[in-house]
């Protein structure tokens, strides 16, 4: 998400919202306890018989619905829960048109990426890079992903803890440590299956927390119809903005079309999502889970936008407190919710649990996916003799180690200013690495295509440069006329020069087809 909350410094708790009741604390603690219990349940179930396939891929036996809810929860972080309503409150509903990109942004992964990844029976999405290019590109892609996700996880871990500190006075770093350690424990012990099922539970908590704010807020200002009327009168309801000017904050083009590429990066090739697709028991279940995300994403976006409109209508009727008027705009959501729900014990705790659910679901997915790519892309290729028991133990250590690393990044995030600034740093770092890999492979292929021909024929032949879907192992068999097995159709680039006679014969056979 391109919206965030300010993290420059912890805010002093408001005098009328710092009275976080016992019921609120109970609701909040229940979230952590139940999340930990789900992880421990899956860890203890079959303890001593776990394999890396069970730990990292849930044994590839997950059904459609939990995978779909986990896909939804993975990138529905506290940054989005706090940021989207603030965006609507400040600039109107133009951001709502981001939903136009969801259909195409999920349709393409469902019919292009998922079949390819699933049929190759991959564990890491970056295995495809080695099949298509070489091992160096695979390692570079893996390192880029690790670098970007560790930075982003520090931001996601820090944001809800700052929120809790701002509204309750609860110790900032105690909540950071609690969140990070609880998440690292159940992710390391329970593996992907625990992560998916805790995501299901946390998705329900996020839904209930946001729904409570919409219901109570709209009731206090006269209903959703009155909310819509007030927003229309003050110009907060936006039509389709077709201005092609790239300097306009949001337009239909940037949201609907630019959003497609954002969705492809999140739901098409991101390891955290690919890993969930590949954990499905069948390819059809993986595709259906991707389809199921579409209506869920629309509901989540609509709820965030409605909270922003309700907040706008609320402050047309009730004046802001001194602290609210002095706070940064992106912190309005926290003060609004605590002001709105202060007379309803349990509901402030539910919303804080909603924020923490967003962070828990995101960072648990990150810990698990980081452990997976490290194990499959950086360790197994160099140490193939690892026994299953040692590999399983190392995978758990890696997941917990990344949890500790992200705690360190949370401290660095506190020194970086806005959350969005930290997210942009990670994004730019990832883009630089991605461009380096992409342009480097392009230059390398151009150099190889410009190399002199390795034969001494005098014929004036046109050399046909061909990219084949058959791996080098198939080419090395020397059976040009035999049909390769279906499992041999792996995307690859031939790594050895192809003789001209072979090229011409293949080109002729292709023309006949």
Features:
single chain, 513 residues, mainly alpha, 19 helices, 69% helix, globular, disordered C terminus
Could you provide a short overview of the structure?
The protein is 69% helix and 0% strand.
Please compute the radius of gyration using only Cα atoms: 26 Å
Order of helices and strands: HHHHHHHHHHHHHHHHHHH
Q: Figure out the total of helices.
A: 19
Could you report the average pLDDT, rounded to the nearest whole number?
Answer: 77
Low-confidence stretches: 1-17, 419-423, 451-513
Architecture overview:
The chain is mainly α. It is built from 19 helices and no strands. Helix 7 (135-168) packs antiparallel against helix 15 (347-379) and helix 7 runs antiparallel to helix 17 (419-449). The radius of gyration is 26 Å and the shape is globular.
Topology:
Layout: H1 22-44, H2 52-57, H3 64-74, H4 78-91, H5 102-119, H6 127-132, H7 135-168, H8 172-221, H9 224-233, H10 252-267, H11 271-278, H12 283-317, H13 322-326, H14 332-341, H15 347-379, H16 388-414, H17 419-449, H18 472-475, H19 500-512
Helix pairs in contact: 1-8, 1-15, 3-8, 3-11, 3-12, 4-12, 4-15, 5-10, 5-12, 7-8, 7-15, 7-16, 7-17, 8-12, 8-15, 8-16, 9-12, 15-16
